[in-house]
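Example 342, ligand UFG.
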Amino acid sequence: MSVMRVLVSGGAGYIGSHTVVRLVAAGHDVVIVDSFANAKPTVVGRLEALTGTDLPVHAFDLTDKDKTERLFATEKFDAVIHFAGLKAVGESVQIPLDYYVNNLESTFSLLRAMRRHGCDLLVFSSSATVYGEVAPVPYQEDYEPLSASSPYGRTKVMIEHVLRDVAGIDERLKVAMLRYFNPVGAHPSGTIGEDPQGIPNNLMPFVAQVAVGRRERLQVFGGDYPTADGTAERDYIHVEDLAAGHVAALQWIASHDRKVSTWNLGGGRGTSVLQVVAAFEKASGMPVPYDIVGRREGDLAAYWADPSRANAELGWRAERTIDEMCADTWRWQRANPDGYPD
Ligand code: UFG
C-alpha cells in the first residue's frame, strides 16, 4: 500500500476527526480543511496529541473557489476525503437554500481544483438517507431510484449523481461513495467525540447528555412502530469502525480501476431506541429517564444495511457492539460534559 497525501475536508468534525487519526495511523500524510462553522478549533490540538504529529489546518469554506484553487496550487494531494457539509435534517427544511448552496458548491469547487491539479481520488460522505422511503430492508447499494425526504438528504442524492457523471467523463478520477448508517460512539481515549451545538438532534448524543445530567429526560419519538418493542430501529455504527471503512475504501480505489464504487457502511442489524437507552444505562451506570411521545415527522420505522459488498470487497466489517458504542460515548461525555472547550 502506498502512502498518500490526503486532504480531509471537514477534518475537525465528528467523523472527519476520527478518520484523521486512522489515516495517520495507517501512515498517510494528512492535511485538514475546515470552515469551523460546526467544529471547535480545540479539536486540532486533541488530534495532534492522539496522532503525535503536526496537522496542517486550513480554515476556510470550500464554497470559496479561489481559496480552494490556491490550496491545490500550493500543495499536492493524492486524494480527498470530503466530509465537509451541513448535516442537520430538520434545519435543512428551514434553510434549504443554504444546504443546497453549501453542500453542492463545496463539492463543485473541490472537483474543479482536483481536476486542474491532477488529484484523482475522492471519497465522499453519503448517507443511508439516499435509499428514500420505500427501499426494501436491508438496503443494498444497487437499489434505484435514489431519493430522499429532506433537503439535506437531497443534497446527498444530487452529489452522488454529480460524482457519477463527472467520473464518467474524467479519465482519471475514481470515486468512492460511502453510505453511512447511524454513526455513534467516540475514540476510546475519550478525548475526541461528537460535539453537537445546542440541543442534539440525534439520539445518542441526547441520551448521553441526559445521563450526564445536562438534560432532564429523553423524548422517545414514537412507541407504536411495527417493531418488537414499538420504537424505531436503526443500524448504529461505531465511528471508529466508520473511520476504518474510509481508510479501507481509499486504499481500495487507489489500487483498483473501477471508476465509481458505492459501499454501505453499517453493521447489518437494527437496534431500537429502547435498546439504545438500556445499553446506555448499563454502560454508564446512570439512569436515562424518558417519555414516549409522538413520532417525529419524516422518520422511518426500521432500516439497516446489507454491508456484504463492503465486507467482501474491502475486507471491512463493523465490529464494535452497541455496548462498546455506548461505553465509548459515555467516556467522551463524562470527560467533556460541555463538549470541546472554546
Ligand atoms: N430519536 C428519539 N429521540 C431523540 C432523537 C432521536 O426517539 O431525541 C429516535 C428517532 O426518532 C429515530 C432514532 O432515535 O428513530 C435515531 O434518530 P437519529 O436522529 O439519531 O438518527 P436518524 O436515523 O433520524 O438520522 C439519520 C442520520 C441522518 C440521516 C437520517 C435519515 O443522522 O444524517 O438518518 O436517513 F439523514
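Summary: The radius of gyration is 19 Å.
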